[in-house]
Amino acid sequence: MGVVNPVRKWRGYSKPQRSELYLRWSLYLMALAPLPISLLSNTSTAENEGYGDAARVALVIGLLLTLTTLRAYRTSLDHYLKRPSDHLRWLALNSGVAVAGCWAVLLLGPRGDTGADPLPFSAAYTSTILFSAFGPVAVGLPPRWSAPAGLAGLLAAAPPMFLVGINPVAACGALTFTAIVMTFVGCSCRSFAWLQSVVWELDAAREAQARLAVAEERLRFSRDLHDVMGRNLTTIALKSELAVQLARRGRPEAAEQMAEVQKIAQESQREVRDVVRGYRTAGLHAEAIGARAVLRSADVDCVIDLGEDADRLPLPVQSVLGWVIREATTNVLRHSEADHCAIRLSRAGDRAVLELENDGVPAVPIPSQGSGTGLRGLRERLAAHDGELTVPDAGPGRFRLLATVPL
């Protein structure tokens, strides 16, 4: 089994996947908050023996709470993103560990009747434990449920602060500060989850726009085919019916009607071949305007420069270059995550050169349905006009296409 290259794996992720990885690990780092206070409480045992038992329990609780909080963050974010998860079980377990940890550590810590000041240790530990446990709750539950749940956790963890002899006013101040920190952390975590859901929704909308662009191309083809065949098939049906009636009456005009049917059928065959092969006119300017509209609707900045000689090109050349723009635009939407796209038309001697370049090409190609015959079809269209299609190297993350047609 080969070694996985992290850089290549990262480049293979789509933008929404990269965004989720960043936001998810931002939440995971917040789950590590109980560890520093637990380690600091252990280092303080060398100076104050009153912290000994509490410090050792705090370290165990900190490690356990970190593990449960990581799992709670993961399942809660999956639930928020509408993926299967068992977030409620982990939220209940994580909250239970946090409240039980506060009781155990604070009751074993320094007490006011021994002359020590338990407020700094109690306030710091309670605040850290509670806001760490409240983050997954804010992500996994709607605000109408997460706010009461956070308040219940705060009230459940408050009694030990009074039992160890802390001044009630100071204890209420510490709990108020903890509530403010919990509110800030909860809003931040909820915002992270909301931001990630927006990223996925935008990505889904982008894919929908790409599918709509492909559907529009199919509808355009079906309209062309309908325009060609609708009238001709209707005429063939009417003339065939007329020929049948004339033949039954023994009229010689029946042969003339069938000859016309044959002529119309042959003409229809030619027109269908023209549609399939792209010989029907696809206006260069019309395709350029349509490409700009479709790309901008997908939030892709599109710059088109057809120059001053576009109208002077022969109609067959304009038609085939219009087909190139149409197919290339579809490819940009389906096979990239482009932010910018440029289409330029120029002349090189006795040849017209159409260049399309876009960014947003992933290191690992985006999978798509179909057999991938878009570029092959364009090469066939261009070959019919003695043209050619090339895909020169444009650098990492970029795609460049050149279509040349002799004038």
Give the helix tally: 13
Provide the helix percentage: 55-70%
End-to-end separation in angstroms reads 54 Å
Give a count of the beta strands, DSSP E runs of length 2 or more: 5
Determine Rg (CA atoms, Å): 35 Å
The major sheet is characterized as:
5 strands, mixed
Runs in which pLDDT lies below 50 for 5 or more consecutive residues are 367-372
Topology pattern, helix = H, strand = E: HHHHHHHHHHHEHEEHEE
Give the structural class.
alpha+beta
- The side-by-side strand order for the widest beta sheet comes to 1-2-3-5-4
GO molecular function: kinase activity
Organism: Kitasatospora aburaviensis
Pfam families: HATPase_c (PF02518), HisKA_3 (PF07730)
Keywords: Kinase, Membrane, Transferase, Transmembrane, Transmembrane helix, Two-component regulatory system
Describe the structure.
The chain is of the alpha+beta class. The protein has two domains: 194 residues; 128 residues, Histidine kinase-like ATPase, C-terminal domain (Heat Shock Protein 90). It contains 13 helices and five strands. Strands 1-2-3-5-4 form a five-stranded mixed sheet. Strand 2 and strand 3 form a beta hairpin. Helix 9 packs antiparallel against helix 12. The longest helix has 81 residues. The two termini are 54 Å apart. About 1% of the residues have low confidence. Pfam families: HATPase_c, HisKA_3. This is Sensor histidine kinase.
